[in-house]
Design goal:
Number of helices: 17
Main location: membrane
Structural class: mainly alpha
Number of domains: 2
Helix content: over 70%
GO molecular function: antiporter activity; xenobiotic transmembrane transporter activity
Keywords: Cell membrane, Membrane, Transmembrane, Transmembrane helix, Transport
Distance between the termini: 19 Å
Subcellular location: Cell inner membrane
GO cellular component, one term: plasma membrane
Order of helices and strands: HHHHHHHHHHHHHHHHH
Length: 472
């Protein structure tokens, strides 16, 4: 831990970024394995089963997004206190974050479980899809607590710069999920065939295992954070502070999720060909942004720790280098995608020339500004790490609701571009948001926020835990 802390606070910035980013990128790639595995096995049940999973995913994503701000707040505070050398408060943040995440997940999961039938009715789900979607959605809501707990574990581990252990856990659980999916979906021996519900149940089991391993690691305290049972006493002052810090993060993620749903409705108005092209292009975009997301998370950790240590200028240099790397990697990916767009689409839909042509057009248009995605992700990560989550929320709101959706609507409905106007809204939005992000970053106002200077977090609960565990 001391060697890693020295690297993060004093060592070569490029080496520190790569050290953190590579395990995060690999973890993010592996986590897509949950969706890919479910899609692989559920696809063998037929179109209705695939539709059931597709309908359920946006709803459960929104619920998860609502609670993700708490994990963001925990990661931000953890990284700053780690940089400031306050191990006692790092441990306290972990304990309080666990309490908040557990309570929030139970409430949201219970609400989702009860409201699931009404949500499906609101979405107008077809009768042949309804039962499968209801079962899948309800099992997913039961598992929300495990999703939240493991997301908390990952976020806090990133905050202290420990990114390898989450990678190992995700690797093991993805492999296990691939084995459990066919067992639960199709049955074997005494195990009955559960159909599409079996896919959700397999994911629930593996996520529960991941969450349990995360809690055990915290209790053992060998990887930068130690969880004390006596610290699991609600600290109202901290909870209030973390909620106010994390709420904009929840709004930001929810906004992005809702924006994708609204865009899907607009795309659907142009028919099957446009929907198919959008589906393939969106999948490619999600895969392409994984490296930039990993780099942005590495930037977040390093910026948070260096701000906590008082290294404000180094935090700014980290952001600039991370932004340049994110821009370069995604620009290179855009160039490759532009050249091989038809071949990429044909991997997903090999026998439909019209879809291949339209999907390739979509990819080529939006790939023109992929580098700008790397810019905004890394700069927004620096804002979050400094505690300025409100800025990140405003950028998300402006991006989705003031630029992309209005632009997509006007270009597609009121110009000769028609459906192609949807495609052009992506690069235009990315360029404009990147410019806004750069200008906001250049103002430097984010540098004045240092959460570790606030003393209210050190409550009597923390002091008692420190004394009892012999830390001082």
């Amino acid at each position: 831990m001391n060697d890693r802390r020295t690297l993060f606070l004093e060592g070569p910035i490029a080496r520190a970024l790569v050290t953190l980013a590579i395990p995060i990128i690999l973890t993010n790639i592996l986590q897509t394995g949950y969706q890919l595995t479910d899609a692989f096995w559920v696809g063998r049940l037929g179109a209705a089963a695939v539709a059931a999973v597709s309908v359920s995913f946006p709803v459960t994503f929104l619920v998860i997004a609502l609670g993700s701000g708490l994990a963001m707040a925990g990661a931000t505070l953890t990284s700053q206190y780690m940089g400031a050398g306050r191990q006692d408060l790092v441990n306290h943040v972990a304990a309080q974050t666990m309490i908040m995440v557990a309570i929030t997940s139970v409430i949201l999961g219970a609400l989702g479980y009860v409201l699931a039938p009404y949500l499906l009715e609101l979405l107008g789900v077809a009768p042949d899809v309804h039962d499968g979607a209801l079962g899948f959605m309800r099992v997913s809501f039961v598992g929300v607590i495990f999703v939240f707990l493991y997301a908390m574990f990952q976020a806090l581990m990133r905050g202290v710069g420990q990114t390898r252990m989450p990678l190992y856990i995700v690797l093991g659980t993805v492999i296990l999920n691939f084995l459990l999916d066919p067992l639960f979906i199709f049955g074997w021996g005494p195990m009955p065939a559960l159909g599409v519900v079996g896919a959700a149940l397999a994911t629930l089991v593996t996520q529960a295992l991941a969450a349990l391993l995360g809690v055990i690691i915290f209790l053992r305290g060998r990887h930068g954070i130690r969880l004390f049972w006596r610290a699991l006493v609600p600290d109202i002052a901290y909870i209030k502070r973390a909620f106010l810090l994390g709420f904009p993060g929840s709004v930001e993620l929810s906004t992005r999720g809702l924006g994708l749903m609204i865009m899907s409705f607009l795309v659907a108005s142009f028919g099957t060909l446009t929907i198919a092209a959008y589906g393939v292009g969106s999948t490619i975009l999600q895969v392409v942004t994984i490296p930039a997301m990993g780099m942005s998370m590495a930037v977040s950790t390093l910026v948070g720790q260096n701000i906590g240590a008082g290294n404000i200028d180094r935090a700014a240099r980290i952001t600039r280098l991370g932004t340049l790397l994110g821009f370069a990697v995604l620009s290179l990916a855009g160039a490759v995608a532009y050249l091989f767009a038809p071949a990429i689409v044909s991997v997903f839909i090999p026998n439909d020339g019209d879809v291949i042509a339209e999907g390739a057009r979509f990819i080529r248009i939006m790939s023109l500004a992929w580098g700008c995605i790397g810019i905004q992700l890394c700069i927004v990560a620096a804002f979050r790490a400094s505690g300025n989550m409100l800025i990140a929320m405003v950028i998300a709101l402006v991006s989705q609701w003031m630029i992309q959706f209005p632009l997509a609507y006007v270009l597609s409905k009121h110009t000769v571009l028609l459906a192609h106007g949807l495609w052009w809204s992506f690069p235009i939005t990315n360029v404009l948001v990147a410019i806004v992000s750069i200008c906001w970053f250049a103002r430097g106002s984010w540098k004045s926020t240092k959460l570790t200077e606030e003393s209210r977090l050190t409550t009597q609960v923390v002091q008692e835990a420190i004394i009892e565990e012999g830390i001082r």
